[in-house]
Amino acid sequence: MSKPALHIALVGNPNSGKTSLFNALTGLNQKVGNFPGVTVDKKTGHLKLEEGFQATLIDLPGTYSLYPRRGDEWVAYKVLMGADADIQPDLVLLVADASNLKRNLLFCSQIIDLKIPLVIALTMNDIAAKKDISIDISGLEAELGIPVVAVNPRKNKGLGELKKVLAHTAKMNQGLSPREFMQTKKLAPAAIDGIQRMFPQMSDYMSIHYLISHENFPLNDSTQTAIEQVEIDNQFNPTKTQAEEIMQRYTRIRQIMQQHVVEPGPLEKKLFTDKLDDLLLHQTWGYLILLGVLFLLFQSIFWLARFPMDGIEWMFKEAGGWLGHVLPQAWWSDLIINGLVAGLSGILVFVPQIMILFGLITILEDTGYMARISFLSDKLMRKVGLNGKSVMPMISGFACAVPAIMSARNIENKKERLLTILVTPLMSCSARLPVYTILISLVIADRYYLGFLSLQGLVMMALYLLGTVMALIVSYVMRWFVNIKEKSFFILELPVYRSPRWKNVGITMVEKAKIFVTDAGKVIMVISLLLWFLSSFGPGHRMQQVEAKYALLEQQQPAQKKILDRQFSAEKLQNSYAGILGHAIEPVISPLGYDWKIGIALITSFAAREVFVGTMATLYSVEETDNASLREKMQAARKPDGSQVYTLPAALSLMVFYVLAMQCMSTLAVVRRETRSWKWPVFQFIYMTGLAYLMSFAVYHLFR
Predict the structure, then answer these.
(1) Which of 118, 127, 234, 339 could connect to 532 by a Cys-Cys bridge, CB 3.0–4.6 Å?
(2) What is the pLDDT of residue 566?
C-alpha cells in the first residue's frame, strides 16, 4: 500500500543544476503554474521514491541565501519560513554545486538552523574534478549532520541513491541536524527569547527572521505590533545582526572546507572556459560575436519555424475546405469554419515559433552563453531603464512578441521586466512581413545602389530599425512614469560552458507551448469568434438588400456566378458591422491617407497582422491571395474623387502604423497573463496606437 504523498521543496543557488535535477527526477510528469500573487513559474512534479513513498517535488526559485532581494527569492524564502499557506514542505532537497561549495554552504547552513528536515544533492562533480577539487562526502555528512548524495542529473547518475535517502529521511525523520550549525541565540538572546515566548516551538534562527522580516509574513495586527515591541525593547538592529551572522557562518564554513575539501592553489591553470571568456567578453570581438549569434538565432527562428507553420496553415486550410464541402449552408457552418477553425488556426500557428524560440534560448542558457549576452548588453540597456536581461526578449520579438514577452520572466526587477514587456511589441515580428512586402512592392522602385544594395531591402531594414529605436526611446521616457521603486541589482554569475541538456530543451519547449495554448489561447479564441461575428453579420435590412441584389444578379447572369460570389462576399463585408465600423472610422484615418477598406483591414488584422493581406484580397474580390494579382488590384484602387489609394505617402504611413501599433490580440492576451492585470495591456494598446497615429500622420504629410 502506497504511503501518503510527501511534499519536497527543491531549493538551491542559481546555476547549481537545480532545474536539471528537477527534470531528471520528474521527467514529463510535471506541471507549470504561477505562485499566488506573483508572476513566477511554479513547477511541480511527481515521482516515486523507495519504500512506497509518493512525492510531489516543488521547484522553488533559485536564491543565494535566506535574505531575499528579488520577488522570486521572496517566494522561496516564504516557503522555507512556513509563511506560504499553499506550500508546507515535509522536507527540503537542497542542490549544492560541488565546484563552488563554499558559497553554496551559506544557504545550506541557514536551512540547517531552521531545523527543517534536509537532504543535500551534490551536483557539478565533473566540473569540480576538472578543477582538481576533491570532497570528502562522508566527512561532510558527519560535520553537517545531514545526508549528502553526489548526483549527475545529465547522466542520471546517483538518482536512485538520492530517492532512497529521501524516502529514508522521510521515514525516520533524520533530516534534522543533531546540533546547530552555529549558535544563533548569541546574536540577539533577549530578542529571541521575546519571540519564543510568543511562538514556543520556534527555533532560534527562525526567531531572528521573524524579527527581521515579520512585516512580510501573514500575521495579524496584534502579533505584528507585539514583535515590533520586542524589537524596540531589546534595541534589535537587523542590519548589524545580519552582518554578524554572515561573518560567523563563513568562519565556520572555512573550517569545514579546510577539513573536508581539497582545493588547488590560487595559481592553478585556467580552465578552457576561462580562456573562452577572454574572447567572448572582449570589448570588440565580444560584441561582433554577439551580433553573429543573434543573427543566426533570428534567422533560425524564421527558417526552422517556416515549415511547420506552413504545414499547420495547410492542414487548417484543407480542414476548412473539407468542412465547407460536407457541412450544409448555414450560419453555424460558417461559425465552425471561419470562427472556431480559423481561431484555432490562429492559436496553433504560433506554436512552432514558441517551441523553437524557447528551445534555442534554452540551448543558449544551458551552454552558459545567455549570461554573457546579458553581461555585454547591460551597459546600453541600463541607459534606457532596462538591463542586460531585456535583450533576449526584445530580440525574440523579431520572430513573435508572444513568446518574447513570456521569456521576460527571467528579469527579476519588476520595473525593468514591466518596461521590457511594454516595449517588446514595437519590435517588428514575422507576421508584419506580408504587410511590409506587399506595400513596399507597390510604391518602392526595384532599384539597386552600388550594384548590390536594394532600395526595397533598405526600406525593409529601416522599418525594423524604426521599431528598435522607438522601443529604446519609449523605455527611456516610460522609466520616469512607471512607479515601481524596487532597486535594481544586476549581479550576474557567469556559469561554465557545458553541452546542452537535450531532454531539458525538449521539456521546456513542450511546457511553453502548453502554457500558450491553454492560457493565452482562451482569450484569442474568444476574440476570434467576436471578429467573425462582426465580419459576418450586419443590420438586417442592409444585409437583406445585399442578398436580394445578388440573388437577382445570379438569376440574370448565371455564367458569372464565381465573379458574383466574390463581389457578394466583398459587399457583404462592407455592410457588416466590421464594414460599418470601417466607414465610421474613415474620418479618423483619412488624415493618414487611408480609406474605409484599409480601416476594415486595421480592424480585422487585430486578430493577426498578416490578416491584412487576406482582408485586402477579399475586399478587392481576388479569388486567391496571390501577391501579383492583389498588387494589380491595389495599384488600380481609387478613392471616390478618382485619386490613387496607395500612393507613396499613404503606403509609407501605413507601414509606419504597422511598425508601431498594437495589432495583435494574442500579444495583449499574453501581456494580460504576465502582468495579471488589464491595466497594462490597455495602457499598452492606447500608447502604441497613439504613437502609431502621430508618426503615421507625420510621415504622410512629410512625403505628400
Answers:
(1) 339
(2) 67
